[in-house]
Amino acid sequence: AAGVLGGAWVGQRCGRDKVITFDIGGTSADIGIAIDGVCAETDARSTSIAGFPLLMPMLDIHTIGAGGGSIAYVDQGGAFKVGPQSAGADPGPAAYGRGGTKPTVTDANLVLGRLEPGDFLGGEMGLDLDAAQVVINDLAGELGMDRLEAAEGVLTILNANMANAIRSRTVQRGIDPRSFSLVAMGGAGPLQGAEVAAMLEVPEVIVPPHPGITSALGLLIADLKYDVIHTQFQVSTSADLALFNSEFAEMEAKLTARLAEDGLHADDVRFERAGDLRYLGQGYELRVPFDLGEVTEIALEEVWQRFHDSHAAEYGHAFKDSTIEVVNLRMTAVGASPDLDLPVPDGGKTLDMAHVRTRQAVFRVDGTLQSFETQVYRRDLLPLGVPVSGPAILLQKDSTTVVPPKATATPHETGSVIISLETKS
After folding, report:
1. What is the domain count for the chain?
2. How many CA atoms lie within 13 A of 48 on its CB side?
3. Which of 168, 175, 184 is nearest to 22 (CA)?
4. Over the range 204-216, which residues count as b (16 or more CB within 10 Å of their CB) and which as e?
5. Fewest 10 Å CB contacts: which of 130, 386, 387, 396?
6. Using one digit for the tens of pLDDT, what is the confidence trace for 100-113?
7. What residues are paired with 274 via a beta bridge?
């Protein structure tokens, strides 16, 4: 959840109000959506852990078993798969040199030249290219293909799984991902972000200043927030205005007292109201906002219309002559966090200052696997506003950013790097 908040904040600082947050670690990838800085939430009946319903607000985060340590294998039916099994941290990928014997996403990236063997974790750790080649060779033998094709196949399957996960949160809900920016974070997000975005025709990828700790950043910038829910059954044909107003007043008083204990004055708090509504006889509800202030007949008519509109948007139809039932009333109190004053990066004066070396890296372009001369740079020394043409690799301690061919990476004044992609549209 903190990663989604951090990714949304990074997008807003870059002037982007519609972002897909894309957080990849060693074992999983977490995907969230934020529009105008507001992160999408699940409806109450969709929230559960281990099959037990929670019936409480949660950010809408979709997680799949795909990360840097995900193991590539051929299943009993002969299918080529990646994850959800993971090599973990111990022994980890074969490339870690700690006894790992199974091919992973990290091994594939190293074999393809997308990781710098002598400059991992800011130079504090080396990667074992020979060990990675051995396990990828074994996988290639099972598949009956070339080593590089097998390594690139690992990434293609991984990226396709992640692209499908993003589609489940965008395309399948009527949201066009092509109008969004992808915020790639986590230790492995910047490695895969550009290729996943290309699959979705997302035009750009934003890589935060420190991708590996963006979740920690999310905790620092998160607002203090409390939610109160009161069950109240009312119907639109005989709504009790006094009861609505008394319930909201009681919830506001309760939240104001709770925030006062945290040292926040009521003037520094923003309140939001909503209700869980359904057509009479339905077994599921939709959350609909209520305006602040006194609940009047006119205000309720607006609420009923919002419900009809929400139902039509969610399910494709509305029953405007049907009775509406209110199930729950909700109030949220938000105490804004102080602005986080991050240092502005200086960068270097020229690309030459940031250049480390030129190496060969392998990418699939126009359907063909090709080896490219790829420039390797120190990210913190890149001059602001100066574009870096792909293919390129940007090194930093907590992640590695891959800029594929036909893409351009430009350091932004906020410290993020924005990768612009060629799209079909």
Report:
1. 2
2. 6
3. 184
4. bbbbbbbbbbbbe
5. 130
6. 999 999 999 999 99
7. 289, 330
